[in-house]
Description:
alpha+beta, Ubiquitin-like (UB roll), 20% helix, ThiS/MoaD-like, Mopterin_synth/thiamin_S_b
Amino acid sequence: MITVTVKWLVDFDGFKGARGEESVTLQTQATCRDLLDLLSKSFGSEFTERIFDSEGKELKEELCFLLNGRNIASLKGMESELKDGDRLFIVPFLGGG
């Protein structure tokens, strides 16, 4: 078993307020997909609709998922493997000009 910390800086309406953190225990060889699917099942539709596209398969583009400080898009995406003690941050992309 492994334990991963998930921290979000995203407003999930009806979901633990604007900022939060959760420690999650998973099977060894779990992926980011496994983690996010587990969180979706645990926290329900508010979480799922906020992070996944309308089909529930791909991550929303306005969010950035950082695994130990690296964007999972530059790793293996949702198939990025997790290790004990990893930290996944869910943050909105910032724009401006």
